[in-house]
Amino acid sequence: MREVAVLGVGMQKWGELWEKSLRDIFVEAALLALDDSAIDHIDSMVVGCMSSGLFTGQEHLGSLLADYLGQAPVPGLRVESACASGGAAVRTGFMQVASGMHDIVLVSGVEKMTDVGGDEATYALGTAADQEYECFNGATFPGLYAMIARRHMYEFGTTSEQLAQIAVKNHDNGSRNPLAQFPMKISVDQVLGSVMIADPLHILDCSPITDGAAAVILGPIDLAKKLKKPLVKIIGSGQATDTIALQDREDMTDLKSTRKAAEDALAMAGKTIGDIDLAEVHDCFTIAEICITEALGFAEKGQGGKLVESGATALGGEIPVNTSGGLKSKGHPVGATGVAQIIEVVHQLRGEADKRQVKDARVGLTQNMGGSGGSAVVHILEAE
Amino acid sequence: MREVAVLGVGMQKWGELWEKSLRDIFVEAALLALDDSAIDHIDSMVVGCMSSGLFTGQEHLGSLLADYLGQAPVPGLRVESACASGGAAVRTGFMQVASGMHDIVLVSGVEKMTDVGGDEATYALGTAADQEYECFNGATFPGLYAMIARRHMYEFGTTSEQLAQIAVKNHDNGSRNPLAQFPMKISVDQVLGSVMIADPLHILDCSPITDGAAAVILGPIDLAKKLKKPLVKIIGSGQATDTIALQDREDMTDLKSTRKAAEDALAMAGKTIGDIDLAEVHDCFTIAEICITEALGFAEKGQGGKLVESGATALGGEIPVNTSGGLKSKGHPVGATGVAQIIEVVHQLRGEADKRQVKDARVGLTQNMGGSGGSAVVHILEAE
Q1: Are the beta carbons of A89 and A46 closer than 8 angstroms?
Q2: Cβ-count burial of B31 within 10 angstroms (0-12 exposed, 13-18 middle, 19+ buried)?
Q3: Alpha helices, DSSP H only, in chain B?
């Protein structure tokens, strides 16, 4: 396989972008990434998107977006793995370059979520769960993650304060990110005093509904060396599945797909988890980040609450997690999230993360997750 | 890149499968393909599906289907390129094997279309067109293809009888395929006497709404040589896009994405169109097959009507097209169609196509198309 580098990255400020359509926000991000790379053409396009059919009545995004970017007839492909669609798109683009099939691949993620009402958005997001066996019985994602949180509290003594500390940390990071949807700092008291959505999860334990796109340009190493930006390589990629329905798992606090994807990505990269300098992970709810830090091996099983309490995952801590603000503060346009995680790690490894820069960052990890952990994608990036 | 072989193939009889769910029909096809290959495990799964969100309220098929096939934690990915989703899935699986990332990849296509009513199905299929600029103005796919047909008639003198002959030929082929949805022979008079859907397209010029799944197992050549089935390799793969909206094309009878995808696939295979012994192409409407045979180079521009009239594309003709019955007779569960095209060519190249066997078939081509030609995927297969 050929070595693969990230040649350019781009995204707009995320939020409720009512005046722009799905194709508009994609083109914005793609042009920013092309500009960042200083490359004037692409050979292929991969777009990660969870549910443009239900959110906007539009499928066939490979063709639509290649056309609107003025890039037809290049191959255009959409990939989907629920909220891990962006990570899956990066992995697919990685293989297009690694195999030698294409040289320069534009990988984007996009989701336009605010053109529908709340009930419709809840239905659309529910399609990431088992529609016939979970949603049919009334489950929604806040409810599913609330069950994970309750079990984590019961087994390991995790507290609502520890959950809140995830949100506080990520909003603090997001306050340093000019592209974050909710860049305000919040306090533990504010989280605990906010409206209860699904006990024990308050609204400030939940990531928001967001419109947004993100794009990265992938290409072979020899081409990357000719460009002006510091060289960042993707050295490991792992993807795994688990039962889609939560009730089918032996242990609902154990994110097995994340563990497997991380093992595979680290093995491919020739690294251990101790080599990682920073990580962007899928904090769709605060409890998710706690379980993810355990599945990745940053904490022992059950100790994710204590990990955030210790400050180890804060900016300046031993292993900063979600320096971008994470899904919680930066926003969560589901298909775009996995691509934006790559963007944050690239900024960090290039040393251009400004007020949220992790000192001496050399190796970064991204972890993107679909549903309640039915799928996961992990990538390892390294600065040359 | 590693050479890639098709190790096994499987699909059920297609039709209105009301007693089975999407996951059921996928598992049926996947088990048939595994059985055909005599392989007992897979390393990765790719599923092509156009719009499970709108047709069944279920996304996240990579996880759902890996789980229901008992194959979690293998990576599971859904890819989408409207009605070319199946072909795009084959190409994605091809790259997974070619890159060395995975050894044994199950590529499937699936669509469950009859769980919604006619209006909902028309809306869902419309998401393959430009929703904001075509469907908003009242266009549907029969209408879009009717405009292509009218233009073809105006420019080249193509007749309704020639369109009907495509349907007659494909139903004749389908009558030899036990898995076809509509395996009855029809006559030109029956086509011309059937209800008009969008002038000049009668209902018998249109492919049906279908439930169905198809699966193929891809793997490296050295593994294929250890199995008992005759060796069939994928030697070329091409994918291309065009404007998604018909009104943006310079020439609406010219399927540029198909031309480009075929050029790329043939170049990769080291073949010319004259080397092809049979082809499975995307006859979603009879006019489509006429334009496709021109874009592929089986006929000169404008001469596709005369080609079918001459009998050259019939079984026993110079270049048999759609020996399986095509979308017209075999059925068109949109995401599954591109994978089923591979299955037919594999059966032909193995010499196991029974009553529809093409004599001395050595090299076959598949052409799968999204929307009105906004995307196309072409593969070339060869018997060892």
Answers
A1: yes
A2: middle
A3: 22-37, 52-56, 61-68, 85-98, 118-126, 141-156, 160-174, 188-193, 221-224, 256-269, 286-296, 304-310, 326-330, 334-350
Q: Which residues of A touch B124 (CB under 8 A)?
A: 53
The two tokens of residue A101 are: 């099939």
Per-residue pLDDT of A29-39, as tens digits, reads: 999 999 999 99
The residue-averaged pLDDT of A191-215 equals 98
Reported as a pLDDT band with limits 50, 70 and 90, residue A69 is very high
Give burial (CB, 10 Å; 0-12/13-18/19+) of A360.
exposed
Tell whether the torsion through CA atoms of A307, A309, A312 and A315 is positive or negative.
positive
Q: For the segment A3-39, what is each residue's pLDDT rounded down to a tens digit?
A: 999 999 999 999 999 999 999 999 999 999 999 999 9
pLDDT band at B333 (very low <50, low <70, confident <90, very high): very high
Task: Give residue A129's pLDDT band: very low, low, confident or very high (50, 70, 90).
Answer: very high
What share of residues in chain A are helix, strand, coil (percent, to 5)?
40, 20, 40
In sequence order, the β-bridge partners of residue B278 are B364
> What does each C-alpha distance from B98 to A221, B54, B150 come to in angstroms?
19, 33, 43
**Position with higher pLDDT, A280 vs A40:** A280
Residues 197-256 on A with a CB inside 8 Å of B are 237, 239-245, 248, 256
Confidence of residue B343 (pLDDT cuts 50, 70, 90): very high
Q: Are strands B76-80 and B44-48 parallel, antiparallel or unpaired?
A: parallel
Helix (H, G, I), strand (E, B) or coil at B214: strand
Distance from C-alpha of A272 to C-alpha of A266, rounded to nearest angstrom: 6
* pLDDT tens sequence across B223-280: 999 999 999 999 999 999 999 999 999 999 999 999 999 999 999 999 999 999 999 9
Asked if residues B95 and A96 have their Cβ atoms less than 8 Å apart, the reply is: yes
**Does the distance separating the beta carbons of B101 and A80 come in below 8 Å?**
no
Contact status, residue A80 vs residue A48, Cβ threshold 8 Å: yes
C-alpha dist (Å) from residue B254 to B155, B326, B372: 12, 21, 11
Could you give the CA distance from residue A120 to residue A113 in angstroms, rounded to a whole number? 10
Which one from B83, B206, B284, B291 is the annotated catalytic residue? B83
Burial bucket for residue A119 (CB in 10 Å: 0-12, 13-18, 19+)? exposed
Which residues touch B117 (CB under 8 Å, ≥6 apart)? Answer: none
pLDDT at res. A243: 97
Written as one letter, the residue type at A53 is G
DSSP 8-state secondary structure symbol assigned to residue B329: H
C-alpha distance from B180 to closest chain A C-alpha (Å)? 27
Q: Kindly report the nearest CA distance between residue B314 and chain A, in angstroms.
A: 31
State how far the alpha carbon of B309 is from the alpha carbons of B166, B219, B280, in Å: 9, 40, 18
Residues of chain A with pLDDT > 70, as a percent, come to 100
Tell me if residue B379 is catalytic. no
Name the helix (H) or strand (E) containing B44: strand B44-48
Write the ipTM.
0.97
Q: Given CB atoms, is B140 within the 8 Å cutoff of chain A?
A: no
pLDDT at B141: 96
